[in-house]
Structures are given as C-alpha cells and as structure tokens.
Amino acid sequence: MTEIDIKVPNIGDFKDVEVIEVLVSEGQTLKKNDPLITIESDKSSVEIPSNFNGKIKTIKIKVGDKVSEGDLILILEKTSDATEKTQEKPLEENANEKPLIEKESKKIQTIKIENKKSFSNQNKISNISSASPKVRKFARELGVDINQVIGSERKGRVIESDVKLFVASRSNNSTNSEKKNNENIKQEYAHSEFGEVIIKDIPRVKRLSSKYLMNSWTNIPHVTNHDEADITELEEFRTSLTDMYTGERKKITPLAFIVKALTTSLKKFPNFNSSIDEIEEGKMTIKKYYHIGIAVDTPHGLMVPKLRNAENKNINLISSELKDLSNQCRNLKIDKKELFGGSMTITSLGGIGGSFFTPIINYPEVAILGIGKSEKKQVFLDGKFVTRTMLPLSLSYDHRIIDGAEAARFNNDLKENLGKNFAYKLAV
Questions:
Q1: Buried b (16+ CB within 10 A) or exposed e, 285-318
Q2: Contact, 378 vs 362, CB < 8 A?
Q3: From CA 131, how far away is CA 145, in angstroms rounded?
Q4: Distance of CA 412 to the CA centre of its chain
Q5: Where does CATH 2.40.50.100 sit in the chain?
Q6: What is the C-alpha separation between 379 and 29, in angstroms, rounded?
Q7: For 136, 163, 269, 339, which has the most beta carbons within 10 A of its beta carbon?
Q8: Gap between the Cα atoms of 235 and 404, Å rounded
Q9: Cβ(129)–Cβ(158) below 8 Å
Q10: Of 80, 85, 72, 88, which is closest to residue 36 (Cα–Cα)?
Q11: Can you say how many angstroms the Cα of residue 137 is from the centroid of all Cα atoms in its chain?
Q12: Helix and strand tally (H, E) in the chain?
C-alpha cells in the first residue's frame, strides 16, 4: 500500500485556525469524502474531508492545534486501485444474484435505520463531542460534561440549546428520583394501630405554601448568621412616644423600627435586595424598590404580605400598615399579588418567645431576617458590666450570591441602625 500525506487544503483567507474536533482515529478505514477534522475561525466552522480511500496510519494533529493551508493532518495507507475498482463494481451486473442483492440491500437499510436510532448513544460514547468553543465554555460554566450531551445538529453537533435541554433533563430526573425515594418511605404500620388518632385536613394556606418552602430549602444553599443587636436606646425611645395632641402613649411595636432599619441596610447592600432566578444564564436582578415581606402568623397558616415602598414611609405609617396587613391576612382579605414581589422578609418570634433559629428564605428572595425575643443581659461595655436590652438576629442568606463576610457586614450595619443613634437616622 502507498502512504499518502493528507494536508489542510486551500480553505480561503484563513490562517492559524483552531482544530475543535478530530473526527477519526488511528487504524480507522476511510472512504473518500469522509470528514477528518473540524476547524473553526471567528466566522465559521469547516469540516476537512479525505480525498482518498484508505486506512489511517498516524494522526499528526489534535484538538486545540492551530493549522493553516498545507499543514499535515494525518498519514493514510491508500487502498490499491484494484481494490477501489472492486468496491466500485456495480452489484447489478450479476442478474442471477438479484435475490441476494435485494436481501443484502434490505440488510443495509436495516443497519442504516438502527444506526440512526442509536445515533444519540454513539454521540455519547465518542471521546470528543462535536461543539464550538463557545458552547464548550457555556457547558463548563454550568458544570456539564459536553461529551454527555446529545447534539441536535448535523453529525451530532452540540449547540447551546442542547446543553440547556440536558441541564433541564438532569434537574427533572433528580427531582423525579427524589420524589420516587420519598414515595418509597412509607409507614410499616398505620398510626391507628398504636392508639386513637384524629385525621384532619391541612389548612389550604399551608398546603399552598409547602411547595414554595420545599423549593427554597431544596434549591437554595442556606447559611445562617446569628448575632445580637443592642436596642436599649431604641426601646427607651419607643416606650416614651406619646401622641402630641392627646398625650396618650403610642403603641408602636419594635417591628416598625426593624423594617426601617432593614430598608436602610438594603440600600447599602444591594445584593440582599436581589433575585437570582436566572442563575443559569449567569444573571441576577437588583431591585430598586424596597418591599419588605412580613411573616404573619394566622389561624390558616403563615402568610407573607409585602409592605410596599418602605423607604418612603415614617415609623407611624409603617406601624399602621403592619396592623392593616396583619388583619387582611387573618381575615383572608389580602390580594394574592401582595404576597409576591418582595425585597427581603422579616419573620419574628418575639411575641411568642425563643432566641435564635434558621428561617427559610422566601424564594425568589436571597435573604430573610429572623427576630427572636429581646431580653436584658449583662454586657461588658466601657470597662464594666452593664444591663442592656439585646435582640437576637438570625440572618439566613443564599450562599450562591452572598458570602459570609458580606453577611457579617450586613448584620453589623443593621445593628448600628438599631443602635443608640437610631432615632436621628430612622425615626426623625
């Protein structure tokens, strides 16, 4: 057999273009016009075919190499002319063998159909998937092995939409697997076998909110920062407030001050006032509005209405709207839309008791502030122990967009806003 050098032909005005695919392997038998490699410039992708029949002896290039016209691709052991003529001899010459020819033809057709059906598997098995550098980069950013993606373009070439479809499919499979596992966990014995039980319906609000809670807990990497705010002066100021006309004491809850303080911190730390529901595209939404969610405990279940445009409202107005929102929720008079479109949520256990906990982020928000019950503590301040009113803070945040250092700075700013100078910053 004759050895032939297969080189890069005249490909136009291209020089030093990248090899993005090697479509053959050493020892492989080629036919004329079989594709050898794919090269890609800034403008287009081109497949370089073989000009001869033969068997590949040595491949001289690899993926990532830069090639120009005349560069050696591989060395081919050319098939003899006699062999080529034999291969090209029409089968129809032997009329007596027609039944056999028909039989073989059917066999070939069957093979072609089977190959077409199994194309996706062949694409998966291939060492190097066919895709442009841009698509490969996109797959890497999503943590996807490009070789596992089934291409929808000619010869199984993978495009960006194929990668997205693969990610979505993997996510669905994971969800279905989780559901299947959950379904497999069943009680071996009925609860009634151990004593008297009561079966009652789960409140509708809890049923509706459960899927949002599961979505948040399953998909958001929660981290919770625990801290305490010194609200001694805040409480002294709050309890001293009186109506300027009647002289009666104003009943304003600490929550109104916390809403104002939180809004001030959100202005300083815009990442906390964002959503990353488009994280697959590498984008986040920074909100320019400040709608604070308030977790309301109702007989029907937990509801989270939004106090709109908190940055434009004083303490008195915030306190009044908080009462109104709570009443609407407890009487189921709240508009559904008012439960969505928030900046960040506050959930408070102060009226019930407890200190620190891990609140679940209200998707698609990226953080939630949990408030415990304040209590007087001995604090070492200015060289001596003094009694101060301390408020437990539990800040849960989405670690995909907020790191621990940023969360600590946010908490420090929030504590300062609730500190001794709060009246001049927030209330006045």
A1: eebeebbbbbbbbbeebebbbbbbebeebebeeb
A2: no
A3: 12
A4: 29
A5: 1-89
A6: 83
A7: 163
A8: 29
A9: yes
A10: 72
A11: 17
A12: 11, 19
Q: Is the dihedral of CA 371, 376, 377, 379 positive or negative?
A: positive
Q: Give the chain's length.
A: 428
Q: Which of 222, 226, 300, 399 is catalytic?
A: 399
In angstroms, rounded to a whole number, what is the distance separating the alpha carbons of residues 369 and 252? 20
Per DSSP, the three-state class of 55 is strand
The domain 1-89 is placed in CATH, from the list 3.40.50.720, 3.40.30.10, 2.40.160.20, 2.40.50.100, at 2.40.50.100
Beta pairing class for 306-307 and 344-348? unpaired
SS3 call for 177: helix
Helix, coil or strand: residue 137: helix
Nearest to 320 by CA among 328, 94, 187: 328
What is the reported pLDDT for 225? 94
Residue 128's pLDDT is what? Answer: 55
Q: What span, in angstroms and rounded, lies between the C-alpha atoms of 146 and 159?
A: 10
Does the annotation count 399 as an active-site position? yes
248 secondary structure, DSSP code: P
Q: What is the assigned CATH class of domain 99-184? A: few secondary structures
> How many CB atoms are closer than 10 A to CB 146?
20
Report, as ranges of residue numbers, the positions in the chain whose pLDDT lies below 50: 81-127
Give phi and psi for 76, each to the nearest 5.
-115, 135
Q: Give this prediction's pTM.
A: 0.57
